[in-house]
Amino acid sequence: MPKIFEYLGILIFFYSNEHEPIHVHGKFDGFESKAEIFIVDGKIVEIKIKAVKGSRPLAGRKLAEFKDFLEVYADKIVEKWIDYFVFHKSVEFEKINTRVK
Q1: pLDDT digits (tens), the chain, 101 positions
Q2: Is the separation of the CB atoms in 72 and 101 below 8 Å?
């Protein structure tokens, strides 16, 4: 399970056996949601937040923080996804303690 970011306590990661569409999981205090990132012609066109089967979804402030993070870091998430799943490179973990918005 490559951990790629921690943002204000939300752990953002991939599972090692992921599938498309490109997506990340956000987990905080037992709550977990995933964000699917849709790309058309090399540009991110949509980010959908979904529940994770068997987990309670992020809600309230933490869901809002997860969405804010995704808006700012989606390109970097896609880059890390490609590095890990396509090029089989290790990805660097980054801890971000300041608000992006």
Answers
A1: 789 999 999 999 998 777 788 999 999 999 999 999 999 999 999 999 999 999 999 999 999 999 999 999 999 999 999 999 999 999 999 999 999 98
A2: yes
